[in-house]
Amino acid sequence: MKAFKRSYWSLPYIIFMAVFVVLPLVMVLLYAFRDGSGHFTLDNFVKFFQTKEDLNTFLYSIEIALITTVLCLLLGYPAAWILSNPSLNRSAVTVMLFILPMWINMLIRTLATVALFDFSRIPLGEGALIFGMVYNFLPFMIYPIYNTLNKMDRSYAEAAQDLGASPAKVFMKVTVPLSMPGVWSGILMVFMPTISTFAVAELLTMNKVKLFGTTIQENINNGMWNYGAALALIMLVIIGLTTLLSDSGKEVEDETGGLI
User: Fold this and answer.
1) 180 found inside a domain
2) SS3 83
3) SS3 assignment, position 247
4) What percent of the chain shows pLDDT beyond 70?
5) Residue 257, Cβ neighbours under 10 Å: how many?
6) In this structure, what CATH number is given to the domain that contains residue 161?
7) Residue 40 pairs with which residues in a beta bridge?
């Protein structure tokens, strides 16, 4: 029957995306380019670049996001490689232990981290913030890399070994290039939420360190919807550019066959 066409099953999802994804983005766009009277203006963006505190907070947030992403990559790649290597990890329980934190709400994990620092008498601040960021987002780096390494065709490494390549050369010339799709996915999954978070920073620094997400929240809470929407749009543009750069990196990998 025509009423049961497969395309009709997509209608609930289309409606959901229209109401909860497209409509909020359109509202952010409209508010960002309007003043309090509803007239078109670019003053909200000019104000951002003229407000030194907000600009410095934005740059600082990018710095924290980059540090967190790099640390997660340095810690996550070796962990994912070990987990995906049958000779080093023979139990699926080990993989579950790394993924288990993702099942717990981030605020609960952050509050537990705050309690850990309080118990250890370690002052909260920038160091605690970076530690908490890495702790919260490390599984999001490990899982995509592990997934890629686990599905990688082992015959490539075996062929390189048969041709006389050392283990280090096999790793650098075969394993690393073939794992880049997982690396790019992990970078996106860590960088994007890190740059926009605010609750983690507020809890782990006792509001001593402000990130860009906190600035947006403060403006929205104070009724400055237009300026807050402009800040949110700027952050969305940065996230979008990061995604485009990631896609470009993947295309380069595909064109070169993933091998150097």
Assistant:
1) yes
2) helix
3) helix
4) 92
5) 9
6) 1.10.3720.10
7) 34
- The 3-state secondary structure of 175-206 reads HHHHCHHHHHHHHHHHHHHHHHCCHHHHHHHC
- Residue-wise pLDDT for 87-136, tens only, equals 787 777 787 887 787 788 888 989 999 999 999 999 998 999 999 999 99
How many Å apart are CA 239 and CA 251, to the nearest integer?
A: 19
CA 81 to chain centre: 20
Specify burial of residue 109 (Cβ count, 10 A radius: 0-12, 13-18, 19+): middle
**Residues 246, 70: Cα–Cα separation, whole Å:** 15
pLDDT tens-digit readout, 42-99: 999 999 999 999 999 999 999 999 999 999 999 999 999 999 888 787 777 787 887 7
Tokens 């579950």 belong to residue: 96
Take residue 239 and report the two structure tokens written for it.
Answer: 């996230």
- In eight-state DSSP terms, residue 172 is I
Contact of 102 with 171, CB cutoff 8 Å:
no
Instruction: Give this prediction's pTM.
Output: 0.84
pLDDT in tens, 226-242: 999 999 999 888 888 87
Q: How many CB atoms lie within 10 A of CB 54?
A: 20
DSSP state of 175: I
Number of structural domains in the chain: 1
User: Cα separation of 138 and 98, whole Å?
Assistant: 9
9: CB partners within 8 A, 6+ apart: none
- Phi, psi values for residue 40, rounded to 5°: -65, 135
Using alpha carbons, select from 119, 131, 138 the residue that is nearest to residue 205: 131
* Domain interval for residue 102: 42-255
